[in-house]
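Customer ticket, subject: "Can you confirm the structure for Probable electron transfer flavoprotein subunit beta?"

Message body: Hello, I'm evaluating your service for our small team and ran a test protein. I'd like someone to confirm that this is what the system normally returns, since I don't have a reference to compare against.
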Amino acid sequence: MSKALRILVPVKRVIDYAIKPRINKAGTGVEKTGVKFSMNPFDDIAVEEAVRIREAHKKLVENIHAVSIGPTKAQDILRTALAKGADTCTLIDAKETELEPLAVAKILKQVVAKQNANLVILGKQSIDDDCNNTGQMLAGLLNWPQATNAAKVEIDESSLVAKVTREIDGGEETISAPLPLVITTDLRLNQPRYATLPNLMKAKKKPMEKMTLADFSDVSTEPRLQVLKLEEPPTRSAGEKVASVDELIEKLKSVKAI
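Agent reply: Thanks for trying us out. I re-ran your input and got the following:
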């Protein structure tokens, strides 16, 4: 195996994490008009980790390539990825098509081959659909090992083996796997850096390849799931204070809670 790391970082444009989502009038989805969008937080962590790996292994990392599958406006988050340290990027214009994880994984498989990547780092999930399975599906399609929910990543330069620590119930689990490898990132992996204005200006001059879903005509983008209706959760009623345990029991009995 060539002693070089070619890192692919998929990023997704989502409604900003600080925004409270609102259901649209039709009740079929989340209102997106006039809403701030930004890079999916878990993907931001993935970009940061790729850059940190290069900073720790300057001679080992050959390239960091960011890719986004989404509307034309997704180029904004790709510019942010470039400003933070990615070298090149690809925008796969999907218009307003909502792609499910399997379709995304199949497209990413082809991008991996095109970029000759041997390490894919992506967020464990996106905060809009919370599916948490694109990374796993991609690893399965590539027949690569996978390390999910990474809280710490270490790369051995001599063997090109990654050691990944993940948080589990009651403690931590450390696994190791040789490259090529798919890693999905958890919140505690790192704290992403800010994209400075000078770097954002420089990012505008970095190359951005543009493709469309038509370039992946062998991948079916037909949805397998259908959203029938979205509705707000019921409003919680106000709490009520009681003077004693006996009164509490009577209250619970009155509402048939016990």
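A couple of notes from the result: The two ends are 65 Å apart (CA to CA). The longest strand covers residues 146-156. Feel free to reply with more questions.
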